[in-house]
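TA notes. Do not distribute before section.
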Amino acid sequence: MPKKERKRLQVVISDEQDALLTKTAYELSSPERLISKSEVVRLAIEKIAREMGEDALLDDYRALLEKDEVRDD
């Protein structure tokens, strides 16, 4: 069975954001299954996309992006 093709995305994150990713991955992990930081990012993308479909929290997300010091310019 061929492997599922995946796209790679490289982003620059702060030390604080990396620490949040690490903490979240650790908290989501269990003795039976370790969760990677990449899996946390994929989960967050899906969650945000679902919430955008429901028009929930969009202003909160926009405010976080405006506050963010790391921009894609």
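Switch to the second chain here.
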Amino acid sequence: MKLYQLSKENGKNITQFESNFIMSRIINTEASASIGCMYLEENGVIGYHQAVVPQLLLILEGKGYVRNEQEQYYQVQPGDAVFWEKDEWHETKTDKGLTGIVIESEQLNPAAFMPLK
């Protein structure tokens, strides 16, 4: 498991087409990818299981805890990105609720765009 940080500071200011915003890249893959939004309510849990493919969880709202094979939990909050390798055991849980985007693909390399936390 690796923890990355989503941040505006690592983004690029986009001005084309009279735009004015910052784009922070997250991932690029040539393999097919599955992208979903997960909503964990109060005391929600994504049970301890093996990742079928590499997975990247982007925390959008709320706070929670993640772990891998080690029994130590790490707190996550908006702006955090958690990466698990294929076959890595992991779990996500929350006391008060958490919303996140999960990206799953055979080819994920979050280190290409985001710094480690």
